[in-house]
Amino acid sequence: MLQKLRDKSSGWIATTIIVLLMIPFLFVIDSSYLGGVGANNVARVQAPPTWWKGAPSFWPVSLLWRNAEITSDDFRTRFEQARMSAREQAGDEFDPRQFESLENKRLILDQLVDEQVVRLAADEAGIVIGDAAVAQYIQQIPAFQRDGKFDPDQYRLAIAQGGVARTPAAFDAMVRDSLKQAVIPSALAGSGFVTAGEADRLFKLLGQTRDVQLVVIDAVPADVSKVTDAQITQWYAEHGQDFRQPEQVSVEYVEVLASQLPAPTAADEATLRARYEAEKARFVAPEQRRAAHILIEAGSDKAAARAKAAALAEQARGGADFAQLARENSADPGSRDSGGELGWVERGVMVGAFEDALFAMQAGEIAGPVETDFGFHVLKLEEVKGGQGKPFEEVRDQLAAEQLRADAEGAFNALTTKLVDEVYRNPTALAPAAAAAGLEMKTAGPYSRDQAVGILAHPQLLRQAFSEVLIADGTVGEPVEIAPGHTVMLRVSAHQAEAAQPLEQVRDQVAAAVAADVADKAMLAKADALLAAVADGKTSLSDAAGKAGLSAQALDQLPRGVPVPGTQANATIFRAQPPAEGKPGHGKLKLDDGRHAVFALTAVIAGDVQQVPEAQRQMLVQQLSQIDGNNAAEAFVRGIRERFKVQVNEDQL
After folding, report:
1. Residue (of 289, 519, 248, 303) closest to 384 by Cα position
2. pTM for the complete prediction?
3. Given 3-state DSSP classes, what are the helix, strand and coil percentages for the chain, each rounded to the nearest 5?
4. For 1-53, what is each residue's pLDDT tens digit?
5. Phi and psi at residue 400, in whole multiples of 5°?
6. Helix (H) or strand (E) holding 446
C-alpha cells in the first residue's frame, strides 16, 4: 500500500487516503506536535518523510514529517561548553554579559539546529554506518591506545571516566551518530579544489609589494588649560554615554569549602566489610577471552569466500596449525603476522556477529565461518579469564579510600545542607545562616560586571549578583557549585543602577577628552592641507612636506600584512587603488600611536609566482581547496535548512 502511495503521491486519491489514515492518530498523538515547540525544548527541526520528499507541510500531512527536538538541556550543555572555551581564549578580557547576549545564544542554537538538519538529511539519503566503520574509528582513537595499539582495558577505563557515554554500548551509539552526521559534510568538504590560474592570481596578490612615501604628522600636545567651559558643556552633552557610571552591586557571600573541614576518621573493619557485601558485584572482573582469527575478505564472490573460510575451519579442527593458516590466508594485516592473535577481548569491543560467536564458544574450540562487514572469520578461542569476584582482602585498601572520600563528601554535603536550611528559614538574611553553620560571611563591592574578580566572576555568581529578582527581593540566591567541594551562597546587599555621572564629578575627564579631540583635529587639518597641496598632480608629496616643515620617508617594496608603518596603516595602504601611470595615488591614515600620516603610492609590484617554493605552493593550494570544500558544505546545510522547517522558542534560551 505504501508503494502505491509513493507512486501516486501527487494525486487526489493519495491525499484522501492520507487524510483517512491520519484520523486515528489525532486521538493519541502528543499535543505538542500539533502546535509549536514543546514546552521544555528550545527548537524543533521538521523534515518531510524519507519516502515522500515532496510532502506538503500543511496539516494533517505535516503529521507525517519527521521531528528532531533540541531540548533546553541540550542547549544549556552546549552553551556552557562554549562559555568555557570563550573564557579560556579571552582570559581576563572575557565579558560574561556580552556572552549572555541573545545574539550569541542564537549563534550557538544555530549550530545545534544545523547538526539536527544534517542528521535528518543523512536519514533522507539512506546513510547507514556499519559496525566495522564504528569499530575501526574507535580503535584509532589515541586515548584508547597503549604503545600505539588499541587496548580494551584503556578503552573501558577512558569511557567510564568520560562523563558522556559511560558504557561501550552508549559510546558505540554516540560514535555511530557522529559518523552518520559527518558523512555528507565531510564528503563535500573533501571535494573542494582550486585551479592553477586561481592559485597564481592569489600568489601574485600575497607576494605583492608597494612603493610608498610617508609623511608622519607629529602629535600636537593636548592643552587642557585652553579648554573653555562652553566646550566642556557641549562635549558632555554630546558624549554623555562615555561618562556613565555602570550598574554596581555590593554582596554578602558564604563559602563552604571541603578542604577546610576536619579530616574524617578512618572506617572500622565492620563498616568496610558491610560496604564490600553491599557492592560485591562491582568487584567482579569482566570476562575476557583470548582469541585468534583468520579473515577472508568477501570481495565480489561471497560464496567462494565463505567456502574458503569453511575449509580453513575444517583444517583447523582437524589439527592443522591455526597460526600458520592465519599467516598464509588471513586478510587482516593487524593480526596476520602474529598468527591471527587478537589478544584479550571483552564484550563491547568487537562487531556484533563476531562478538556473539566468540562469547558462545568454549576454550579450545574452532568456530566459523562468521560473517561481518569485514568478510568471513574463522575463530579460535584459546583462553577465558575473569568473571570471578575479588576477595575482601584484595580490595580492602580501595574500600577504605572510598569510604574516607564518602565520609568527607558526606560532611561537606551535611554542612551545605545545614546552611541552605538556615537560609530557607530566613531567606532575606545570610548572616544568621552563616553563624548557625559556623561559617564566615564575607562582603564585597560595590563592583560592576566588568570589575568582578575571583569567585565573584564565576558566571553563575555574576548572574545572581545582577539578577533583577535577587536585587528586588533582597533574598539569598541558590547555592552555586564553583568546583567539587566548593559551594557559595550569595545575597545582594546594595544596588546602584547605571546612571549618568554629574558633570562636576567628571569635569577633568571631559576637559581631557576635549583637549585630545582638539589636538587630533589639528593633526587632521595638517594632513588635509598636505593632500590639498598635491591634489593638482604637479607637486610631489616630499616637496609639499618640505614646505610644511615635515619630511617624507620612503618605504620601498613594502610587503603586505607586516606591521609597518602599523597593522591598520599597512592594510589602508594595500586597500588603496594602484596609481595611474606617472601619477601617484594619495591618501591619509592613522598610526597605532594616534598620529596621522599622509602617503603617496608610487608603484605596485606583483608577486613573482616562480619564486614561491613548491612546498609552500602545495600547502596554500590545499588550504584554498579546504576553504572551497567548507563553503560547499555550508551551502549544502543552508539549502537543506530552506527545505526543512525550523521553529525556535527564544523564551527557553
Report:
1. 289
2. 0.51
3. 55, 20, 30
4. 223 323 433 443 334 334 444 433 333 333 333 344 555 788 999 999 988 88
5. -65, -40
6. strand 441-447
